Amino acid sequence: MDIELSIVMPCLNEAETLPACIEMASKFLARSGVSGEIIVGDNGSTDGSQQIAANLGARVVEIPTHGYGAALHGAINAARGRYCIMGDSDASYDFEHLDDFLEKLRQGYDLVMGNRFKGGIRPGAMPWKNRFIGNPILSFIGRLFFHSQVGDFHCGLRGFRKRAYDSLDLRTTGMEFASEMVIEAQLKGMKIAEVPTVLNRDGRSHSPHLRPYRDGWRHLRFMLMHSPRWLFLYPGCFLFVLGLAASAWLLPGPRRIGSIGLDVHTLLYAFVSVLLGFQLAAFAIFTKVFAISEGLLPEDPRLTRAFRHITLETGLAVGGLLIALGIGGSILAVSGWAKDRFGALDPEHMLRVVMPAVFSLTLGVQIVCSSFFLSILGLRRR
């Protein structure tokens, strides 16, 4: 048969609520006349969930790898439908009314997300820390980092075209699977829509599988690792510019801001700020190139254009110039010391010569090494 829709449910000891979910999904398929199937991705249940699902006409796929993402990924891979709609098997979502999801998919959208904040959250359906802190903050970060319009990154009820899903090459096995799907779809420029979704109270008597703090951190960690700009580049540029400005301001001599005096001690921190900023910016570029070469991020035309001008030779020339300036400054400092017969020196004066020299040497070596490492990463990319 030509199956249009596969309804997918992850399962781990859901004998209490799984029958209701399968029955709702079956009613939807019967009412709508859609040719479909119900797939349960079982993650090692020990309460008989597999037999319950099979008795109710669902197809059970055994997933040996533990984790929310692993269970869904295995079940979706086994799906035969043109479209898939996935949802938790804890009776918190209404599988009997999936019309809006299917309609959007038929209109050509690649990913259709449910939005619980627009559809409504029933009393007791979501812990307050998830509703007012965790979900809003993580969804905001997702929109900020990836320019997404999705308002509820972690809604468990969502639909997608099977072919689009296959092209995402999702890799996570835990709860962060929910974020990965949205982020990868956004990065690949897929068409994404949202529909209001009602979240009902969990029908199980045992505690949920979600661990708010652990899983929240995993979501945040995944977002940071997929956004080198926010993890490395923006903080690095801020430190670099701030340190450079402070260095230029303090290098000629001591400064005062009101009653506060700033001298060589602050100058030292300013130089360190520049070095840290450069390192973070370099990490951003390294991460970006590596992620593109491994297929974790799509090609970036801006990076490709930049590499036409920023080559290994350019980095070696800039780094070599800074190293030469550092060596020159060091020679100048030693010469001044020799004039004083290598005796005691004025620290305030001498440090204003030594620190820029050491700074130039360090930054120059970093640029040379970074240029070589970037070229090594670029070999596979090209």
Detailed description of the structure:
- The chain has 382 residues and is of the alpha/beta class.
- The chain contains 14 helices and nine strands.
- The chain has helices at residues 18-32, 49-55, 68-78, 99-106, 116-119, 128-146, 162-168, 177-187, 212-225, 228-250, 264-293, 301-307, 312-339, 347-381, and strands at 5-11, 36-42, 59-62, 83-86, 111-115, 158-161, 192-196, 255-257, 260-262.
- Strands 3-2-1-4-6-5-7 form a seven-stranded mixed beta sheet, sandwiched between helices.
- A hairpin with a 2-residue loop joins β8 (255-257) and β9.
- The longest helix has 35 residues, at 347-381.
- It is elongated.
- It starts with a strand and ends with a helix.
- The relative contact order is 0.09.
- The model has no long low-confidence stretch (mean pLDDT 89).
Rg, please? 29 Å
C-alpha end-to-end distance: 44 Å
Determine the structural class based on helices, strands and strand pairing: alpha/beta
What does the main sheet amount to?
A: 7 strands, mixed
Strand content: 5-15%
Q: Which percent range fits the helix content?
A: 55-70%
Low-confidence segments, given as residue ranges, are none
Whole-number average pLDDT?
89
What's the number of domains?
Answer: 2
Q: Examine the coordinates and then state which fold CATH places here, giving the name of the CATH topology of the largest domain.
A: Spore Coat Polysaccharide Biosynthesis Protein SpsA, Chain A
The CATH superfamily of the largest domain appears as Spore Coat Polysaccharide Biosynthesis Protein SpsA, Chain A
Count helical runs: 14
- What would CATH call the class of the largest domain? Alpha Beta
- SSE topology string: EHEHEHEHEHHEHHEHHEEHHHH
Q: Using the alpha-carbon principal axes, give the shape.
A: elongated
| Total strands | 9
